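User: Hi! I'm working on a homework problem where we have to compare a predicted structure to a textbook description. Could you give me the structure for the chain below?
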Amino acid sequence: MSSQSNRAGIALFLEYPLADRGGVSVLVEELILAFGEEFAVWLISPDSSEDVLKSPVGHLLEGHVRFVLTHLPPSGRYDELASSLVEKLKEAGIKLVHFHCGGTFGWGNRWPGRSMPRAFSRAGLKTVWTNHLTEPAAKAFAARGRSKRLSGALGPVGRLGKILQTRAVDTEIAVSEHDRDYLQAHYPAGRALKRIYHSRLRESILASTSIREPLILAVGHIAFRKGQHFLVRAFLEIAASVPDWRLEIAGHDGGDGCWQEIQSLCASHPQGSRVNLLGAHSRPSDLMSRASIFVQPSLEEALGLAVQEAIFLGCPAIGTRVGGIPEVIDEGITGLLVEPGSAEAIAAALTRLISDSGLRQEFGARGREAILRKGMTAPRMADAHRSLYLELLA
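Assistant: Happy to help. Predicted structure tokens:
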């Protein structure tokens, strides 16, 4: 890890291991790559420090604290954990902390007045919070084995907790216009939220000029909320009429049963062998450069990093009208939008693009410029965070 200490100290909080390579982890890694030499960056995450040191960003970090949130409020142990971490980071010279939350609820913010960001703010540190997904208040206390009725009854408590957490931080960020508007409507805290588009794209990367295969592609961990089961149903519906085409889905098993449902669908269908579950893939961009159609069939999505990258690389896209996906796909310009949860709608969009190679070429040719115009690149993301950090630290 870095040994320089004359830079402003900031700490990035990550709920998931860096090695998970999920969307939130990848974006935190991008911020470390951007700021590791400009700020004294500490990472707070469940990783072992040994694993962090071996990671691609280990040499850029000033320090790492392994932290697993084992207790939640109203447990008194939660307050002890928060206080201990506050003191540790203050001793390390940290001036600003940035909490990354995989949803709307995390880091104990569901309990009114007891969130970890509030503890840091009260200790005099500048605090930033990023919501990487929006959720209804009923999700605040949702847990395996807990009834939906009980979770719903506790929703108002979680809603108040979220509102108070937003008021406690100096700046709250959403990763799409949709999510910013949703948060301000459902968790009104009397203050404006900031929108920063997230991306891992380098502006120097050019769209692929490779010959594209009759391949339909989806990338992302396999889970019901990602909607891949609807995509599989759609492809199987039209597969017999497009015998040269196949479907590949890259991503690890999210563990909620969606992977098994897809396997079952394919096993019981005569065209099922043309669907390939690839598992986690180290270079999804290679797949995107070969594919002729990319599909983001999500039921909920904050922005959609995978579809953003596919469009940037010149692959025409189909996406659902949820979250920030319509901000990534320009309807009729770089791709097509469909209603979520509809295999029939996805099948119709696939049929349209498969049957019209000229339209696919038009969509693909416009993709890179469209993403650049929106500012959906890693340098633009870094610039927005840099400006925010410097403003708060001034």
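For your comparison, note the following. The chain has 15 helices and 13 strands. The CA atoms of residues 245 and 294 lie 13 Å apart. Good luck with the assignment!
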